[in-house]
Amino acid sequence: MRIVVAYKWTRDPQEATVRADGTVDWSRAKPGLSAYDPVAMELARQLAETAGAELIGVTAGGKGVAAPIASKAALSRGLDRVVIVEDASLAEASRSELAAVLAEMIRHIGDVDLVITGDSSVDVAAKMVPTVLAGELGWPAVAEATSVSGKAGALRVERAIPGGVQVLEVSGPAVLAASADAAVPRVPGMKQLLAAAKKPVELLELAALKVPPSSAVMTVTGRSRPERKARKGQLIDTTDPAAAAAELVTALREAGTL
Amino acid sequence: MSVNAWIIVGDHPAIGNLITVARSLGGPLGAVVAGPRSVAEIVAASGVDKVVWCGTPDDVPAEASAQAVAETVAADPPRVLLAGRNPGERVLLGAAAAALKAAVLTGARSVSADGDGVIVVNAVFGDIAEETVAVSGPVALLLDGGPVPPPGASTAPIEEVAVTPLGLKVIETRTSGFDEVDLNEAHRVIGVGRGLKAKEDLALIEALATAISAEVACSRPVAEGLNWMGKDRYIGSSGAHIAPQLYLAIGVSGQLQHMVGVQGAEIIVAINSDPNAAVFSQTDYGLVGDLYQLVPAITAALE
Predict the structure, then answer these.
(1) Where are the beta strands (DSSP E) in chain A?
(2) Would A130 be classed as within a structural domain?
(3) Same-domain pairing of A204 and A240
(4) Which residues of B touch A165 (CB under 8 A)?
(5) Most exposed: A81, A104, A227, B93, by fewest CB within 10 Å?
(6) pLDDT at position B182, please?
């Protein structure tokens, strides 16, 4: 059995600022593994260990995604090897372009039984790359997956639904987007980091993948920094909790919200 | 009849907003439904021009019809695909977008027709910035579905297509014991963060919620990880986006990913023991202190 984890090496918008012209300043944001990807890696690793499967990481992106620090961060989380496409043109890749590249990478790897991704990327948070990827591959996708067990061709997947959990039987290759709490990632130690440095890293050329072109052209014609509602920013003195409570209740009643 | 837009529906007929957006672009509007027949019937009465239903046995989830949905839209390729923000609908939209090689946008603030293309004002990077994007060629939009549309004057015919389901089967459904909620319907919402020490302490919050007729919501770790509430109660960039009259953030630190979900609130109040918490720069009224003293005091002050 062969399991692929698709991950992203990117930056957290929490550390970015937006200039007045709407462009985003990422200079203070440090790149790292996207927040929920360690969950996907842990979920995949647990399945790979019990099923005796090979576990392969894939990522595609702009400059930096093939840097040793990036591949080691992924490999130290229990992947057997990684396959990477680093191409400057992918820095601003759209959801559909990224999914199409990942689909070709998975075809290149061959004989893949299962793809697991994180819940969403920390920067874009669209939650669409795994589902478009599944569409490209012609495989079913399941989002909000909370657990997975079994083996290739007979997987048992649990997923969160409103008000509960649904257990699904998956009888062929599939893409799973793990829920954010599907597993508790283990923090890699020195041993894992040292081992990561020795694991295979395969670099693919984007041009060699022959990714079919998109039918749509997107052109950014304007950028802006959204107007935020002005907030009063009034601090209420809480030395006496009862007086603070009374002051808040009065203010909210006067504002007509209570 | 070839359509200008397809609305893609799984188990959720809550597509009122999708109909409004699609209608604003003009042209015939189709809907393809992968969920139960009952959902297709609600959609057929909602004012769309045609409905295609991918009928499958009861133990086959909507996602198993992704290929059939993709083939349906590819046979009558539209300018726009629309779907609501639910896991099943995301899967169906992804399959359809892949079949059309369409662009995919998930943060649309407004959508307008522009010749053969569309112009989308799209929020990006956790809503910190907006881009105006001109799209030529097909575009798939993931949007807030809106309410379930009321039945209109006429009902569109339902065309059933045969589906060869992808390899997915439901073998069991278990309830979590959490009530389902639509936070968008609440005028007042209390959001609980990790400042609350124990699940039992939710009783304090619920007493206040009862006193002001509020729904109780939370930051992401409280629903995912701590599991104190259902996932439909967490607010943030990948959770609920709400615009109540009052949002009361209790023990919430004020991370970007949470606060973008409450930008639309009329008034924001925060209670946090850390005077440096980011939440205080984004509120109308801030109370620095112990929530275990302040929350009961506010409940008492309301009596």
Answers:
(1) 2-6, 9-10, 17-18, 24-25, 32-33, 54-61, 81-86, 114-117, 141-151, 154-161, 164-170, 174-178, 201-204, 217-224, 234-236
(2) yes
(3) no
(4) 173-174, 176
(5) A227
(6) 85
Q: Are B250 and B193 spatial neighbours (Cβ–Cβ below 8 Å)?
A: yes
CA of A29 to nearest chain B CA: how many angstroms apart?
Answer: 13
pLDDT tens digits for A197-206? Answer: 999 999 999 9
* Facing B91 at nearest CB: one of A134, A138, A162: A134
Chain-chain contact of A231 with B283 (C-beta, under 8 angstroms): yes
Q: B123 vs A226: CB contact, 8 Å cut-off? A: yes
Q: Say whether B245 and A174 touch across the interface (CB within 8 A).
A: no
Give per-residue pLDDT as tens, A110-119: 999 999 999 9
Q: What tens digit of pLDDT does each residue of B92-151 get?
A: 999 999 999 999 999 999 999 999 899 999 999 988 999 999 999 999 999 999 999 999
User: Inter-chain contact B256–A216, Cβ cutoff 8 Å?
Assistant: no
Instruction: Please judge whether A252 and B267 are an interchain contact, meaning their C-beta atoms are less than 8 angstroms apart.
Output: yes
The answer, yes or no, to whether residue A169 has pLDDT greater than 90, is yes
- In chain B, the residue whose alpha carbon lies closest to the alpha carbon of A35 is B257
Strand partners, A164: A161, B175
Over range B262-271, report the average pLDDT. 96
Is A169 in CB contact (< 8 Å) with chain B?
yes
Tell whether A203 is within 8 A of chain B (Cβ): no
Query: In which element (H, E) is residue B158 found?
Result: strand B158-162
Same domain, A168 and A238: no
Return the residue of B nearest to A10 by Cα.
Answer: B125
List all residues of chain B from 205 to 234 with a beta carbon under 8 Å from chain A: 212, 220, 224-225, 227, 230-232
Please check whether residues A196 and A237 belong to one and the same domain: no
Number of other residues whose CB lies within 10 A of the CB of residue B159: 13
Q: What is the DSSP letter of B41?
A: H
Whether residues A84 and A129 share a domain: the answer is yes
Do A203 and A137 fall into the same domain? yes
Asked if the structure places residue A177 within a domain, the reply is yes
d(CA A103, CA B127): 28
Residue A146 is assigned to a structural domain of this protein:
yes
Structural domain range at position A65: 2-209
Which of A127, A139, A156 is the closest to B238 by Cβ?
A: A127
ipTM over 0.90: yes
Q: Which residue of A has its CA nearest to B64?
A: A140
Does A195 contact chain B (CB < 8 Å)? no
Domains of chain B with bracketed CATH: 5-162 (3.40.50.620), 183-301 (3.40.50.1220)
Q: Are the C-beta atoms of B162 and B186 separated by less than 8 Å?
A: no
Q: Is the dihedral of CA A200, A201, A204, A205 positive or negative?
A: negative
- Residue A202 is given by DSSP the state E
Mutation for B interface: A21, A131, A219, most B CBs within 10 A = A131
Does A185 share its domain with A151? yes
Shared domain for A126 and A199, answered yes or no, is yes
Q: Name residue, tokens 């257990």.
A: A167
Chain A, 26 to 85: residues with Cβ < 8 Å from chain B are: none
